[in-house]
Design goal:
The protein is an alpha+beta fold. Helices cover about 40% and strands about 15% of the residues. It contains twelve helices and eight strands.
């Protein structure tokens, strides 16, 4: 138990400096019934979201560890109330990790659309797909939906979201489909999506297939960028857009091509000469007008989406998504922010790990007005 208390103290040293003040100002704590402090409350919440335990299992473990004696209903209510607190903690940690969540497109509202498949704990746990939308830079989750991992109407599609005129929608290649692009345009929003040439056919001004591979030959050096005017067709609708591309570094190219070969060996896909050539570039389709947004701004904006994607990859591979609260949208969103917070803590711990002193933790700062001993 002493070791556990010491580990928690070290972990608290990675929290944003004002984490307790945020807990009070965010409204997460209107009363601490059952919890001795904010410290105990956050520790119990992280046991739930970080370990993937159910609410009932969490309260038992919290009692055994001497953290708190509360019911599962009380813990659920505290999780709901902590939604904004956990979101603000995520914002602070992202900045601590050196990522600016302010989009490159100044003055335009930006939303990040994504989905991830999760599995309940245990061998017989069910699989779910979490569909969510985050607003940048405040990380506000304005859409959260749980569906089965397989079956009708469970896939990634832009059509399940509602958009506001003028906003920019960032999404990965899983949303690179003509009907989804058409739905965003129909709602007078703009899209910025990673191009999947296999699922999003491109056409030129004469309705001929656009020769993208041929045009990519002009990107001969790492960091070279270019854009091309293209059209996407969905039924009778013809949508004007452009493809913004940048050539990857040689290291990134080799890494991407190895992933293709690994998927082929696993029987998940076929690594053709065409897909290996596409792996040399990052290609983004956007409906943003070129007179207002440059190629560089489009790519920088998409890069921010990728930063958050990396965090979710760590979330899935390291943190384990674990138990999903299916009680209501508020508790589900709070659970999502809690998972993000744990993933970002892991990222910060890795970053500072090499700088931690031989005794294994940071020395506390001396009180104001006092000088440390020589």
């Amino acid at each position: 138990m002493t070791a556990l208390r010491e580990d928690w103290k070290v972990l608290c040293g990675l929290f944003p400096a004002d984490w307790e003040a945020l807990g009070r100002s965010s409204g997460a704590v209107t009363r601490l019934r059952g919890f001795g402090s904010l410290n105990a409350l956050l520790r119990a919440l992280l046991l739930h979201v970080g370990c993937g335990w159910s609410l009932r299992e969490t309260v038992v473990q919290a009692q055994l560890a001497g953290i708190a004696e509360v019911s599962d209903v009380t813990l659920l209510n505290r999780l709901r109330q902590a939604e904004d607190w956990l979101r603000q903690l995520c914002q602070r940690l992202w900045k601590d990790n050196g990522v600016d969540l302010e989009p490159a497109l100044k003055g335009r509202p930006v939303r990040l659309i994504d989905a991830t498949t999760v599995k309940e704990p245990g061998k017989t746990g069910g699989q779910w797909r979490v569909h969510y939308s985050l607003r940048l830079p405040n990380l506000e989750c304005d859409h959260f939906e749980l569906t089965a991992a397989r079956g009708k109407n469970t896939g990634e599609r832009l059509g399940r979201f509602r958009f506001h005129p003028g906003e920019v929608v960032l999404a990965d290649a899983g949303y690179s489909h003509p009907p989804g692009i058409a739905e965003v345009v129909r709602q007078h929003a703009h899209v910025c999506v990673r191009l999947n040439p296999a699922s999003l056919p491109l056409w030129d001004e004469r309705r001929r297939p656009f020769p993208l591979l041929k045009r990519l030959k002009s990107l001969s050096r790492a960091g070279t960028t270019a854009e091309w005017r293209v059209w996407v067709e969905s039924g009778e609708q013809r949508i004007a857009g452009r493809v913004c591309g940048v050539r990857k570094s040689e290291i990134a190219i080799r890494r991407a091509q190895r992933r293709l070969l690994r998927k082929q060996q696993q029987g998940k896909s076929t690594a053709t000469a065409e897909t290996q050539e596409y792996a040399r570039y990052v290609l983004v389709f956007t409906t943003l007008p070129s007179r207002e947004v440059t190629t560089r701004q489009v790519l920088d904006c998409y890069r921010l989406r990728w930063q958050i994607e990396l965090t979710f990859k760590r979330l899935k591979s390291i943190v384990r998504l674990g138990h999903i609260p299916k009680h209501d949208d508020q508790s589900s969103r709070a659970w999502l922010y809690g998972k993000l917070f744990v993933a970002l803590l892991s990222q910060k711990l890795i970053r500072v790990g090499s700088a931690i002193s031989p005794w294994g933790y940071y020395l506390p700062e001396p009180p104001s007005g006092l000088q440390p001993l020589a």
